[in-house]
Design goal:
Belongs to the binding-protein-dependent transport system permease family. With about 550 residues, this protein is an all-alpha fold. The protein is built from 22 helices and no strands. The two termini are about 30 Å apart.
Length: about 550
């Protein structure tokens, strides 16, 4: 029988084309080797090897981990019961931090949406320009942005808000673009078939598909920005971060625990809102959510009313946040003008004071980022799958995994670093920093994996099960198969997040490059700050290039 005749003959159901081959599954044919298959298998293997090499370079061993775990437990024992010396002041600082986070997230949403759509464009020049802006915003630490805006407009909450907003454009733009790339092209083609123009194809064929992912990304970025505001507070922006730094400075671990628990409560609140809104948007696509429509007016159903209420409520909340932090149109215009003047302080970069440490510092930074991403991904992927309703075996497992996930995500990364450094000591600073970032990475990866797993198509899973596959084969072929492109993107995104975390480690002496950056920021050596940030920027660009290439092959 000819190949054409074989392709026309009836065959058992098989996973969607986006899934990897059904190797070992009865009834599913073997797929020939291809670039996509090689990338699907090759990237995890290469990444695992690099992760193990990085951990060995840093001296992260099982014996040291066991000893360090005992020190962490002993430290936590001294941190209970939690206390709050001045609850009223603490909660006032929480509100200040929350307003900064809301304003920064709102400021980034519209530019990130525009850049995300442009970055998914088929026009190469447009796509490259948009990706360049996104990577630039993501590669520079938010603290460096804050230093730049302080030099431009002076001290106050607005520099912190602008720093959070500009940095958020990098993450949101990347996630928005990936969501657009993963959207079903059939819907877009169907809309185009009705004679719709480019704007109508975007509004009717793309945005309804990506809305749940976009809302989840915005809300996730909100709680990241809340924790980012904690870091900015620790370096002078005020808010709850100043309370946390003060408590650790006086080794008052019980007070630090109290402040951390307040932070956890706020993140739990944001998580609850995220789950509710995400469920509302996903439910809107079900058959039961579509009412019978007569004539041309869409009726005001409960779901439509809730969606509009949430949207207008978000706009009102953003307006209040802008007012509280002083982000008026006039202030933003002054910030833009001041930024142009401040560029002369940061350029050209001065490499002379840091020429001797850049090589070793970059190697250490890359090793910490690789090791932390490797460990965090190993823990985060199963945790994220267990937290997803569509994958978890039962509600008990899902609830337990979701609880662990929210608990990990709610801990400020600065607090994690402080705890691990206090337990391991500054002599093992890189090890402490790697483990702290690994915990943070596990939460990051698990959150993104859980969100993507909620939107898995049921068809490939049903096809694999109907072919006689067991639970393990269903997981590896139909679940991980559909998630392969996103898992690759998530892993590389976590890697570039960890590359940029070198400043957080440097604040407490857990990284040579970050410590040098913090010292030159305090000394107002802005041209040297640029010299330190530029090589890390190049590393992030390299990771982004690899990520874009792999996503293209795996699509």
């Amino acid at each position: 029988m000819s190949p054409r005749a074989r392709s026309a003959a009836p065959s058992p159901p098989r996973p969607a084309p986006a899934s990897p081959p059904g190797r070992g599954v009865p009834g599913l044919p073997r797929v020939p080797r291809s670039g996509r298959r090689m990338a699907a298998w090759g990237f995890p293997l290469v990444f695992a090897v690099l992760g193990v090499v990085a951990l060995d370079h840093l001296g992260v061993g099982v014996g040291g981990l066991v000893a360090g775990f005992g020190e962490v437990v002993a430290l936590l024992a001294r941190a209970v019961p939690p206390t709050l010396a001045d609850p009223a002041t603490t909660f006032a600082h929480v509100l200040d931090t929350l307003w900064m986070a809301v304003a920064g997230t709102a400021l980034a949403t519209v530019p990130a949406a525009v850049l995300g759509v442009l970055a998914a464009s088929r026009i190469r020049t447009v796509r490259s320009a948009a990706l360049g802006v996104i990577v630039a915003c993501r590669a520079v630490p938010d603290v460096v942005f804050a230093v730049f805006f302080v030099a431009a407009i002076g001290i106050g909450p607005l520099p912190g808000v602008l720093a959070l907003g500009l940095h958020s454009v990098g993450m949101l733009g990347k996630l928005f673009a990936e969501a657009v790339e993963q959207a079903d092209t059939g819907v877009r083609e169907a809309v185009a078939g009705t004679g719709a123009g480019p704007a109508q194809r975007l509004l009717g064929g793309v945005l309804p598909q990506v809305a749940p992912s976009w809302v989840a990304a915005i809300l996730y970025r909100l709680d990241i920005n809340f924790r980012g505001s904690v870091l900015l507070g620790a370096v002078g922006a005020g808010g709850i971060g100043l309370d946390l730094k003060t408590a650790f400075g006086f080794t008052d671990y019980r007070e630090a625990t109290g402040v951390a628990l307040v932070t956890v409560a706020v993140v739990l609140l944001v998580e609850g809102v995220s789950v509710a809104l995400r469920g509302q948007l996903l439910g809107a696509g079900g058959a039961r959510a579509v009412p019978a429509v007569h004539a041309t007016r869409v009726p005001w159903t409960r779901g439509r009313f809730a969606t509009h209420l949430a949207g207008w409520g978000a706009l009102a909340l953003a307006a209040v946040a802008f007012w509280r932090v002083g982000a008026s149109p006039a202030a933003l215009a002054d910030a833009a003008a001041g930024s142009v003047r401040a560029l002369g302080d940061f350029f050209p970069p001065d490499f002379a004071p840091v020429a001797g440490l850049l090589g070793g510092g970059l190697l250490e930074t890359a090793a910490i980022a690789l090791g932390a991403t490797f460990l965090g991904t190993l823990a985060g992927v199963p945790l994220g799958l267990a937290a997803a309703r569509a994958v978890a075996p039962n509600d008990g497992v899902r609830l337990g995994a979701r609880t662990v996930l929210v608990g990990l995500r709610s801990i400020p990364d600065l607090l994690l670093v402080l705890v691990f450094v206090a337990a391991f000591g500054l002599m093992d600073g890189p090890v402490a920093g790697t483990l702290a970032l690994a915990v943070f990475t596990a939460a990051l990866v698990a959150k993104l994996v859980a969100d993507d797993a909620e939107e898995l198509r049921s068809g490939p899973r049903e096809a694999v099960l109907s072919a006689g596959a067991g639970p393990v084969q269903e997981l590896t072929v139909a679940v991980l198969g559909q998630l392969t492109p996103r898992l690759t993107a998530i892993t590389l995104y976590a890697l570039d997040v960890n590359l940029r975390a070198f400043f957080i480690l440097g604040i407490v002496g857990a990284g040579e490059l970050g410590y040098a950056l913090s010292q030159h920021i305090r000394a107002l050596n802005h041209d040297v700050v640029t010299a330190i940030v530029l090589p890390v920027f190049v590393l992030v660009l390299a990771v982004e290039a690899v990520s874009a290439r792999l996503r293209s092959v795996l699509r």
